């Protein structure tokens, strides 16, 4: 299948040393003593790697491959479909997790997987032979970012890849033998951000972004490029070229042009006539499931609050009915055998572990395969409630609320609350098991996430409402969400915390420097402090589509743009900063480089604002290693307990194996070294 624009965006947006156990005590907001609560669920229950992830069928339907921990590091595993419990590890990497997204080769004997080094996002591809365990490198081992482009039954021992060894800005197209590793350059790319191929391994379409931020699509004809189509900048986040039919005659795409909500469209490549195959009145069509051999769409889904499927083919309607009869949750199709007689699917659930199942068309039944995280059965999880919040300027904001278990005075109690904000910003929160929500709710906090303007899935008008609104109306949406919770009577206005990463970390710093009176404390993971320095340090492969950022956010090449970016940078509004801040940073981050956190820490110290700064030398944009996630959440839990008054657990051994370094402010979080 082809590597779609959506896949590429997800890969870009992917998607986050030992210390002894220390005694931990925390103070409530008003200075009262808060005693440790040993009965609280252990943090590792929420933040350990899943027992099973991405359970995928081999093309012949005989085997299941999945990602699971081996000695604490995620590896590839294999099991026979006839006996799924007989799983065995295929790889034994010990340095860095194998990326969850992998692909079977049509040999039915080889699996292609990706790894990076310490979070540098330079993905290198390898194949593993399921019979011998032999691993063959397929792309350059270091300093090169590789992407799986295409696989096809026509070429069982080959795949198409793109990587940027020649020029870090552009990705050339290669045909690589996944059995032996031999590589052939098919197209040297000097112009295009993305390339699109078909199942015959033909290069068909490419896209580039001129100064106005639109996407110009060109078509390959007789070794030359001709104009094909244009996607205006306002449609980019909901319009996606997904795949070609197996015969190459039909292009399938998500499209918002001429409408607000994305529809699934089929475009005839000869006549250019198009036809809508699926649409939803309330939200964008956000995902599509395809029949493997014909590459024909079977069903598509939209998600306003929870997933809603739209069957295109009768067989998919039958499958969806079977899944609905099986049990609760929001189902997602994961993989199909090449003859489409076997299907793996995943049930997303909010208050219990997700579950992988197998649909067998011959037997017409759904068979359980694996629980995603069995340890969740040990704890009492809380339901995640979809909520609707009005913004001050008339937009409808969709969000998710998780409330703690009610206490003896639940009818009158006002709770401490944590606002948890997603990154991107052109992504979204969704319904299901959320480890941060469940962890914080288990500590007695109400937890609220809001899909502020710019979040995807709600139509293009909702995305474009965020243009030039970083730190402006996008932040107003978050304050409106807090005020909504207070007005509903469950949130204590004196005990509201902010927790965000990436763009959410930027939002946290905006909250600290724009509306500090709303929040008692701030937690920032790898957030942007200065928009000008952020835009000057982007990875080189972001450069070819940088025009999109300049048109949406602000253009640092113009004086007006620089003035706007300075005004929306938290670093330039330190006069309002008064609240204690916890900042965490991966030192290999290529998206939000460490300097963004470091300059903020220095500015806070110059103003004598309480700041605790944590670094992780073996992490990039997000904390991948479970040991680092546990260490970070242990510190965060103590920090929140001190300022919001919630219960907490001692750190215990949750620093064990972590590379965490407390750069400054250890004395500000009880129980940490000074």
**What composes the largest sheet?**
9 strands, mixed
Unreliable stretches = 3-38
Mean pLDDT across all amino acids: 93
Read across the widest sheet, the strand sequence of neighbours is: 30-31-33-32-34-35-36-37-38
What do these coordinates show?
With 674 residues, the chain is α+β, with helices and mostly antiparallel strands. The chain has a domain at 7-45 and 377-404 and 414-530 and 569-668: Alpha/Beta hydrolase fold, catalytic domain (Rossmann fold). It is built from twelve helices and 38 strands. The strands form nine sheets. It has a nine-stranded mixed beta sheet with strand order 30-31-33-32-34-35-36-37-38, sandwiched between helices. Strands 3-4-5-6 form a four-stranded antiparallel beta sheet, with no helix packed on it. The chain is globular, with a radius of gyration of 25 Å. The model is unreliable at 3-38 (pLDDT under 50).
């Amino acid at each position: 299948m082809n590597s779609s624009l959506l896949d590429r965006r997800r890969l870009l947006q992917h998607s986050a040393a030992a210390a002894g156990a220390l005694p931990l005590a925390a103070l409530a907001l008003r200075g009262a003593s808060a005693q440790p609560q040993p009965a609280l669920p252990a943090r590792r229950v929420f933040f350990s790697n899943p027992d099973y992830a991405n359970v995928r069928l081999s093309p012949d339907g005989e085997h299941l491959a999945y990602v699971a921990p081996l000695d604490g590091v995620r590896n590839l595993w294999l099991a026979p479909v006839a006996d799924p419990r007989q799983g065995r590890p295929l790889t034994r990497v010990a340095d860095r997790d194998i990326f969850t997204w992998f692909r079977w080769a049509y040999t039915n004997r080889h699996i292609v997987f990706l790894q990076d080094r310490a979070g540098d996002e330079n993905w290198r591809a390898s194949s593993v032979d399921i019979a011998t365990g032999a691993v063959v490198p397929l792309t350059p081992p270091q300093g090169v970012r590789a992407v799986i482009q295409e696989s096809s039954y026509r070429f069982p021992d080959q795949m198409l890849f793109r990587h940027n060894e020649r020029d870090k800005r552009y990705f050339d197209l290669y045909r690589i033998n996944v059995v032996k590793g031999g590589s052939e350059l098919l197209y040297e790319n000097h112009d295009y951000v993305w390339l699109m191929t078909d199942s015959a391994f033909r290069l068909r379409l490419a896209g580039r972004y001129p100064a106005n931020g639109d996407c110009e699509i060109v078509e390959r004809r007789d070794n030359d490029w001709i104009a094909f189509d244009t996607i205006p900048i306002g449609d980019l986040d909901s319009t996606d070229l997904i795949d070609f039919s197996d015969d190459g005659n039909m292009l399938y795409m998500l499209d918002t042009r001429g409408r607000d909500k994305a529809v699934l469209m089929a475009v005839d490549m000869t006549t250019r006539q198009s036809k809508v195959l699926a649409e939803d009145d309330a939200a964008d069509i956000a995902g599509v499931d395809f029949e493997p051999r014909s590459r024909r769409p079977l069903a598509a889904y939209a998600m306003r609050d929870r997933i809603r499927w739209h069957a295109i083919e009768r067989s998919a309607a039958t499958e969806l009915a079977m899944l609905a009869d099986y049990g609760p949750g929001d189902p997602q199709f994961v993989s199909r055998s090449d003859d489409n007689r076997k299907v793996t699917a995943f049930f997303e659930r909010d208050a219990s572990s997700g579950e992988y199942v197998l649909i067998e068309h011959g037997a017409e039944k759904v068979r359980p395969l694996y629980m995603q995280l069995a340890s969740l059965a040990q704890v009492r999880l809380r339901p995640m409630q979809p909520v609707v919040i009005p913004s001050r300027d008339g937009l409808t904001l969709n969000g998710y609320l998780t409330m703690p278990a009610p206490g003896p005075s639940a009818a009158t109690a006002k709770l401490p609350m944590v606002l948890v904000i997603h990154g991107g910003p052109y992504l979204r929160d969704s319904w299901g098991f959320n480890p941060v929500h469940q962890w914080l709710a288990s500590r007695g906090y109400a937890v609220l996430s809001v899909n502020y303007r710019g979040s995807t899935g709600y139509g293009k008008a909702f995305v474009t409402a965020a243009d030039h609104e970083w730190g402006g109306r996008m932040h107003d949406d978050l304050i409106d969400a807090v005020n909504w919770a207070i007005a509903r009577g469950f949130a204590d206005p004196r005990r509201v915390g902010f927790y965000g990463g990436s763009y959410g970390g930027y939002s946290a710093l905006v909250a600290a420097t724009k509306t500090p009176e709303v929040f008692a404390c701030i937690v920032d993971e790898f957030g942007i402090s200065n928009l000008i320095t952020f835009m000057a340090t982007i990875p080189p492969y972001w450069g070819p589509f940088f025009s999109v950022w300049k048109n949406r956010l602000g253009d640092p090449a113009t004086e007006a743009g620089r003035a706007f970016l300075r005004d929306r940078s938290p670093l330039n509004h330190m006069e309002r900063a008064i609240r204690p801040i916890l900042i965490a940073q991966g030192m290999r981050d290529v998206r939000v480089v460490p300097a963004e956190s470091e300059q903020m820490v220095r500015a806070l110290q110059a103003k004598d604002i309480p700041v605790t700064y944590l670094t992780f030398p073996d992490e990039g944009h997000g904390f991948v290693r479970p040991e680092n996630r546990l260490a970070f959440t242990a510190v965060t839990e103590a920090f929140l307990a001190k300022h919001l008054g919630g219960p907490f657990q001692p750190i215990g051994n949750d620093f064990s194996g972590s590379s965490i370094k407390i750069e400054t402010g250890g004395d500000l979080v009880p129980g940490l070294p000074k």
